[in-house]
Amino acid sequence: MFTQSKKDLKKIRDYLINESDFSKHNPEWFISISYLYPYTRDEIIKFHKRISDVINDTFDPYHLNIICKGYFIEKGKKKIKTKISRTTITQTNYVHDELIDGQLGSHLMLSFPTSPIDHPNKNLRKVWLKIFPELDGKSPKNRLSKEENKQLIADTLEYVIRDRCPAFIANGDQSIDIQLIDESIAFLNTGEKGWKGVLHYCTKQMFCKDQFLNVLDTNNSNISVA
Protein backbone atom coordinates (compact mmCIF):
# COMPACT_ATOMS: atom_id res chain seq x y z
CA MET A 1 0.00 0.00 0.00
CA PHE A 2 1.33 3.42 -0.97
CA THR A 3 1.84 6.01 1.74
CA GLN A 4 0.54 9.52 1.14
CA SER A 5 4.08 10.74 0.41
CA LYS A 6 4.48 8.13 -2.33
CA LYS A 7 1.12 9.09 -3.80
CA ASP A 8 2.16 12.76 -3.78
CA LEU A 9 5.48 11.94 -5.41
CA LYS A 10 3.79 9.89 -8.13
CA LYS A 11 1.46 12.81 -8.91
CA ILE A 12 4.42 15.21 -9.15
CA ARG A 13 6.37 12.86 -11.42
CA ASP A 14 3.35 12.17 -13.62
CA TYR A 15 2.77 15.89 -14.00
CA LEU A 16 6.39 16.65 -14.95
CA ILE A 17 6.46 13.73 -17.39
CA ASN A 18 3.11 14.32 -19.06
CA GLU A 19 2.34 18.02 -18.67
CA SER A 20 5.64 19.93 -18.51
CA ASP A 21 7.68 21.06 -21.52
CA PHE A 22 9.81 17.94 -21.09
CA SER A 23 6.92 15.97 -22.61
CA LYS A 24 7.42 17.93 -25.86
CA HIS A 25 11.18 18.38 -25.66
CA ASN A 26 12.52 15.21 -24.06
CA PRO A 27 15.73 15.86 -22.10
CA GLU A 28 18.84 14.50 -23.76
CA TRP A 29 21.41 15.46 -21.14
CA PHE A 30 21.81 14.79 -17.43
CA ILE A 31 24.37 16.99 -15.68
CA SER A 32 25.40 16.64 -12.03
CA ILE A 33 27.36 19.44 -10.37
CA SER A 34 29.29 19.47 -7.09
CA TYR A 35 30.19 22.77 -5.46
CA LEU A 36 33.34 24.16 -3.92
CA TYR A 37 31.83 24.84 -0.49
CA PRO A 38 28.63 23.94 1.43
CA TYR A 39 26.56 26.76 -0.02
CA THR A 40 22.99 27.58 0.93
CA ARG A 41 20.03 26.88 -1.34
CA ASP A 42 19.68 30.60 -2.15
CA GLU A 43 23.33 30.74 -3.21
CA ILE A 44 22.94 27.67 -5.42
CA ILE A 45 19.91 29.21 -7.12
CA LYS A 46 22.15 32.16 -8.05
CA PHE A 47 24.71 29.71 -9.43
CA HIS A 48 22.01 28.08 -11.55
CA LYS A 49 21.28 31.50 -13.06
CA ARG A 50 24.93 31.87 -13.95
CA ILE A 51 25.12 28.37 -15.46
CA SER A 52 22.01 29.04 -17.56
CA ASP A 53 23.47 32.31 -18.81
CA VAL A 54 26.67 30.51 -19.81
CA ILE A 55 24.78 27.74 -21.67
CA ASN A 56 22.51 30.22 -23.47
CA ASP A 57 25.37 32.54 -24.38
CA THR A 58 27.38 29.64 -25.80
CA PHE A 59 24.73 27.69 -27.68
CA ASP A 60 22.01 30.25 -28.42
CA PRO A 61 23.18 33.85 -27.89
CA TYR A 62 20.51 35.27 -30.22
CA HIS A 63 17.60 33.38 -28.59
CA LEU A 64 16.62 31.65 -31.81
CA ASN A 65 15.96 28.19 -30.37
CA ILE A 66 14.47 26.52 -27.34
CA ILE A 67 16.72 25.19 -24.60
CA CYS A 68 14.75 23.41 -21.89
CA LYS A 69 16.29 23.23 -18.43
CA GLY A 70 15.15 21.60 -15.22
CA TYR A 71 17.31 22.22 -12.13
CA PHE A 72 16.97 19.90 -9.14
CA ILE A 73 18.75 20.44 -5.83
CA GLU A 74 19.85 17.37 -3.89
CA LYS A 75 20.96 17.23 -0.28
CA GLY A 76 23.93 14.92 0.19
CA LYS A 77 24.05 12.22 2.84
CA LYS A 78 24.62 13.35 6.40
CA LYS A 79 28.19 13.05 7.62
CA ILE A 80 29.84 12.50 10.96
CA LYS A 81 32.23 15.29 11.87
CA THR A 82 34.65 14.90 14.76
CA LYS A 83 34.83 17.98 16.98
CA ILE A 84 37.05 18.91 19.88
CA SER A 85 35.42 20.81 22.73
CA ARG A 86 36.86 22.25 25.93
CA THR A 87 35.08 22.29 29.25
CA THR A 88 35.02 25.61 31.06
CA ILE A 89 35.35 24.16 34.55
CA THR A 90 38.12 21.60 34.26
CA GLN A 91 39.65 23.08 31.10
CA THR A 92 39.76 19.60 29.62
CA ASN A 93 39.49 18.82 25.93
CA TYR A 94 37.18 16.05 24.84
CA VAL A 95 36.42 14.61 21.43
CA HIS A 96 32.90 13.90 20.22
CA ASP A 97 31.19 13.14 16.92
CA GLU A 98 28.48 15.36 15.50
CA LEU A 99 26.07 14.47 12.69
CA ILE A 100 25.95 17.32 10.16
CA ASP A 101 23.79 17.85 7.08
CA GLY A 102 25.18 16.80 3.73
CA GLN A 103 26.29 19.38 1.20
CA LEU A 104 23.85 20.51 -1.48
CA GLY A 105 24.48 19.60 -5.12
CA SER A 106 22.63 20.12 -8.39
CA HIS A 107 21.21 18.01 -11.18
CA LEU A 108 20.32 19.59 -14.51
CA MET A 109 18.07 17.92 -17.09
CA LEU A 110 18.75 19.65 -20.40
CA SER A 111 17.19 19.52 -23.85
CA PHE A 112 18.35 21.04 -27.13
CA PRO A 113 15.30 20.43 -29.39
CA THR A 114 17.43 21.40 -32.39
CA SER A 115 21.12 20.55 -32.68
CA PRO A 116 23.12 23.53 -31.40
CA ILE A 117 26.14 22.64 -33.51
CA ASP A 118 24.53 22.25 -36.94
CA HIS A 119 25.02 25.96 -37.61
CA PRO A 120 27.52 27.06 -34.95
CA ASN A 121 27.33 30.71 -33.86
CA LYS A 122 30.38 32.90 -33.37
CA ASN A 123 30.52 32.28 -29.61
CA LEU A 124 30.53 28.53 -30.14
CA ARG A 125 33.29 28.84 -32.73
CA LYS A 126 35.36 30.90 -30.28
CA VAL A 127 34.99 28.19 -27.65
CA TRP A 128 36.02 25.50 -30.12
CA LEU A 129 39.09 27.54 -31.04
CA LYS A 130 40.15 27.34 -27.37
CA ILE A 131 39.35 23.64 -27.07
CA PHE A 132 40.78 22.66 -30.47
CA PRO A 133 43.48 25.24 -31.31
CA GLU A 134 44.97 22.84 -33.85
CA LEU A 135 41.88 23.34 -36.07
CA ASP A 136 42.59 27.05 -36.40
CA GLY A 137 38.99 28.01 -35.75
CA LYS A 138 37.42 25.54 -38.18
CA SER A 139 34.37 23.64 -37.00
CA PRO A 140 35.36 20.22 -35.59
CA LYS A 141 31.83 18.88 -36.13
CA ASN A 142 32.49 18.32 -39.83
CA ARG A 143 35.08 15.69 -38.96
CA LEU A 144 32.90 13.76 -36.53
CA SER A 145 30.30 11.03 -36.73
CA LYS A 146 26.80 11.55 -35.31
CA GLU A 147 27.84 9.87 -32.04
CA GLU A 148 30.97 11.99 -31.83
CA ASN A 149 28.88 15.12 -32.38
CA LYS A 150 27.09 14.29 -29.14
CA GLN A 151 30.45 13.99 -27.41
CA LEU A 152 31.40 17.39 -28.84
CA ILE A 153 28.33 18.92 -27.19
CA ALA A 154 29.24 17.25 -23.88
CA ASP A 155 32.87 18.44 -24.08
CA THR A 156 31.71 21.96 -24.93
CA LEU A 157 29.22 22.06 -22.06
CA GLU A 158 31.82 20.93 -19.55
CA TYR A 159 34.45 23.33 -20.86
CA VAL A 160 32.30 26.47 -20.74
CA ILE A 161 30.84 25.69 -17.30
CA ARG A 162 34.28 25.07 -15.82
CA ASP A 163 35.82 28.03 -17.65
CA ARG A 164 33.18 30.60 -16.76
CA CYS A 165 32.01 29.36 -13.35
CA PRO A 166 35.28 28.63 -11.51
CA ALA A 167 34.30 30.55 -8.37
CA PHE A 168 31.81 27.94 -7.17
CA ILE A 169 32.42 24.67 -9.07
CA ALA A 170 34.27 22.05 -7.03
CA ASN A 171 37.71 20.88 -8.08
CA GLY A 172 38.28 17.46 -9.59
CA ASP A 173 37.17 15.50 -12.62
CA GLN A 174 33.94 14.31 -10.97
CA SER A 175 32.68 17.77 -9.99
CA ILE A 176 30.83 17.99 -13.32
CA ASP A 177 29.34 14.77 -14.66
CA ILE A 178 27.66 15.07 -18.06
CA GLN A 179 25.76 12.07 -19.40
CA LEU A 180 23.88 11.58 -22.66
CA ILE A 181 20.57 10.03 -21.64
CA ASP A 182 20.07 6.55 -23.09
CA GLU A 183 16.39 5.90 -23.74
CA SER A 184 16.92 2.16 -24.13
CA ILE A 185 18.08 1.34 -20.59
CA ALA A 186 16.87 1.94 -17.03
CA PHE A 187 18.60 4.82 -15.28
CA LEU A 188 20.54 3.67 -12.23
CA ASN A 189 18.20 1.89 -9.77
CA THR A 190 15.01 3.76 -10.69
CA GLY A 191 13.54 0.96 -12.79
CA GLU A 192 12.51 3.56 -15.39
CA LYS A 193 14.17 3.97 -18.78
CA GLY A 194 15.69 7.08 -20.33
CA TRP A 195 14.76 10.60 -19.30
CA LYS A 196 11.81 9.39 -17.23
CA GLY A 197 14.26 7.37 -15.15
CA VAL A 198 16.48 10.45 -14.78
CA LEU A 199 13.46 12.46 -13.61
CA HIS A 200 12.61 9.75 -11.07
CA TYR A 201 16.20 10.01 -9.80
CA CYS A 202 16.14 13.83 -9.60
CA THR A 203 12.86 13.87 -7.67
CA LYS A 204 13.72 11.13 -5.17
CA GLN A 205 13.94 13.66 -2.32
CA MET A 206 10.46 15.08 -2.95
CA PHE A 207 9.06 13.20 0.01
CA CYS A 208 5.89 15.31 0.07
CA LYS A 209 4.29 18.22 -1.75
CA ASP A 210 6.12 20.68 0.49
CA GLN A 211 9.44 19.30 -0.75
CA PHE A 212 8.57 20.12 -4.37
CA LEU A 213 9.80 23.71 -4.12
CA ASN A 214 12.83 22.69 -2.04
CA VAL A 215 14.06 20.34 -4.73
CA LEU A 216 12.97 21.99 -7.99
CA ASP A 217 14.53 25.39 -8.69
CA THR A 218 11.55 27.10 -10.26
CA ASN A 219 13.53 30.34 -10.67
CA ASN A 220 15.82 28.87 -13.30
CA SER A 221 13.90 25.87 -14.64
CA ASN A 222 12.07 27.02 -17.76
CA ILE A 223 9.78 24.01 -18.00
CA SER A 224 6.15 24.84 -17.23
CA VAL A 225 5.38 23.83 -13.63
CA ALA A 226 2.30 25.94 -12.89
Describe the structure.
It is a single chain. The chain has 6 helices and 6 strands, in the order αβαββββααβαα. The chain has 226 residues and is an alpha+beta fold. The strands form 2 sheets. Strands 2-5-1-6 form a 4-stranded antiparallel sheet, with helices on both faces. Strands 3-4 form a two-stranded antiparallel ribbon. A hairpin with a 6-residue loop joins strand 3 (79-86) and strand 4 (93-100). Helix 2 (41-59) crosses helix 4. The longest helix has 19 residues, at 41-59. The protein is globular, with a radius of gyration of 21 Å. The mean pLDDT is 88.
Biggest sheet, strands in spatial order? 2-5-1-6
Shape: globular
Order of helices and strands: HEHEEEEHHEHH
> How many strand units?
6
Given helix and strand content, the structural type is alpha+beta
Estimated radius of gyration:
21 Å
Q: How many DSSP helices?
A: 6
The amount of helix comes to 25-40%
Poorly predicted ranges (pLDDT <50, ≥5 residues)?
Answer: none
Distance between the termini: 29 Å
Strand content: 15-25%
The largest β sheet comes out as:
4 strands, antiparallel
pLDDT averaged over residues: 88
